[in-house]
């Protein structure tokens, strides 16, 4: 499900429908001004996010978090962003601050935001559902683990095959197998469904300029030309920070490394992902239990509003001019793989622009969130108390286990 790799989906709600805050709860993780995120809300978000990423249950996620210290600094930094609860809390706080700011911003285009929420819900729920369904079918043998390890010893710096490394290898193999199985699953699902793409052929025909018809019919869904263009241009506006004119120019002759990095800029590819999204989304809504669906929808809502709001507010700050592009090319033309041997033509300029914009976007987003934090009173003492209680429980459990083992040895001697 290549179109679902972005891992973000949609909630069919409006922005003002509510938030994850509770009023004066008995157990809370963080207080932002006079509103709270409860411990349950926080832990639900934590495990839901990591289940999406790693296709593991709570026990499996806890084990991965416990093993963080045994990883290399680089790996610890990568996995820690998701598995370290303290770091994850900061991520939730950051997202909630942006969410709250967006609620108060009267300049936001509510219709466009609704489209964003639809896109996010479809993709994220679909991604979660497929991983959850197929992970149960994936089996990994010891031979597969050993073969992977022997072929990739450099990745592990020739370290011995410890339990922690075995788990990492299994995760890698599992993700690849799920991706392979998802293609089979989607094909079977498509074969059982009623899909009519004839409208798309007319839509992309340059000789026909009808913009009031439909693009595709998927079971009981009819995607109009207007809806399709809203999905296509809004999603790429967020992920690529490009307006309609810029995107059409890039998509017109996209091939090679650009098409590989951004496959959905081709409308044929985007349509395929959209069809798959609708098919899986319908099953996810019907089959996911409420206790899974509710925290997943809350996470989706946070992600969707954040992605949209930040991209809109920072657009003017991440523009890239011709001088910046020329300097980047002069500096990296003999070092960056995508530039070696390439002339500074329109296509090269477009790709350089994307790279520089992504760098600027990361920097400006971090700056934007830091400034937001100065506007609110943030109390994390609830989370600190929660973590202390968790550590105490672990110590008690460890002590009880030690006592039981000692008793067993004594009984054996007798």
Strand order of the largest sheet: 2-1-6
Order of H and E elements: EEHHHHHHHEHEEHHHHHHHEH
Give the low-confidence spans.
1-19
Query: Percent of residues in helical segments?
Result: 55-70%
| Strand segment count | 6
Q: Report the biggest beta sheet as strand number plus sense, adding barrel if it closes.
A: 3 strands, antiparallel
> So what's the overall shape?
globular
Look at the structure and give the mean pLDDT: 85
State Rg: 24 Å
Share of β-strand residues:
5-15%
* Termini Cα gap: 61 Å
List the total number of helices: 16
The structural class is mainly alpha
Topology:
Blueprint: E1 28-32, E2 35-38, H1 39-54, H2 58-66, H3 73-83, H4 85-104, H5 110-135, H6 142-151, H7 163-191, E3 195-196, H8 198-204, E4 214-218, E5 221-224, H9 225-240, H10 244-252, H11 256-261, H12 267-287, H13 290-314, H14 322-332, H15 346-373, E6 378-379, H16 381-413
Antiparallel strand pairs: 1-2, 1-6, 3-4, 4-5
């Amino acid at each position: 499900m290549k179109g679902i790799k972005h891992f973000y989906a949609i909630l069919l709600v409006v922005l003002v429908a509510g938030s994850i805050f509770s009023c004066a709860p008995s157990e809370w993780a963080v207080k932002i001004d006079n509103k709270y995120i409860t411990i349950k809300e926080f832990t639900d978000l934590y495990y839901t996010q990591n289940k999406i990423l790693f296709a593991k249950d709570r026990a499996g996620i806890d084990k991965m978090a416990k093993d963080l210290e045994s990883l290399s600094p680089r790996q610890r930094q990568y996995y820690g962003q998701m598995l370290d609860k303290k770091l994850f809390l900061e991520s939730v706080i950051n997202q909630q601050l942006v969410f709250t700011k967006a609620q108060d911003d009267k300049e936001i285009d509510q219709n466009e935001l609704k489209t964003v929420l639809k896109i996010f819900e479809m993709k994220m729920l679909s991604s979660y559902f497929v991983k959850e369904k197929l992970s149960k079918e994936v089996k990994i043998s010891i031979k597969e683990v050993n073969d992977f390890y022997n072929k990739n010893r450099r990745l592990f710096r020739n370290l011995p095959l410890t339990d922690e490394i075995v788990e990492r290898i299994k995760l890698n193999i599992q993700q690849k197998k799920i991706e392979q199985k998802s293609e089979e699953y989607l094909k079977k699902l498509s074969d059982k469904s009623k899909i009519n793409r004839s409208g798309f052929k007319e839509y992309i025909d340059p000789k026909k300029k009808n913009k009031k018809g439909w693009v595709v019919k998927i079971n009981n869904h009819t995607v109009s030309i207007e809806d399709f263009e809203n999905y296509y241009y809004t999603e790429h506006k967020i992920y690529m920070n490009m307006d309609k004119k810029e995107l059409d120019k890039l998509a017109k002759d996209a091939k090679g490394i650009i098409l590989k990095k951004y496959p959905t800029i081709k409308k044929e590819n985007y349509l395929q992902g959209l069809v798959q999204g609708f098919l899986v989304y319908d099953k996810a809504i019907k089959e996911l239990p409420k206790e899974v669906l509710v925290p997943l929808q809350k996470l989706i809502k946070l992600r969707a509003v954040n992605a949209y709001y930040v991209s809109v507010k920072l657009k003017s700050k991440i523009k890239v001019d011709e001088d910046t592009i020329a300097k980047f090319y002069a500096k990296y033309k003999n070092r960056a793989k995508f530039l070696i041997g390439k002339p500074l033509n329109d296509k090269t300029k477009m790709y350089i622009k994307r790279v520089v914009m992504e760098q600027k976007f990361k920097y400006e987003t971090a700056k934007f969130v830091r400034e937001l934090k100065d506007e609110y009173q943030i109390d994390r003492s609830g989370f600190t108390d929660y973590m202390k209680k968790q550590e105490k429980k672990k110590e008690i459990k460890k002590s009880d286990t030690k006592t039981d083992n000692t008793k067993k040895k004594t009984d054996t001697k007798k």
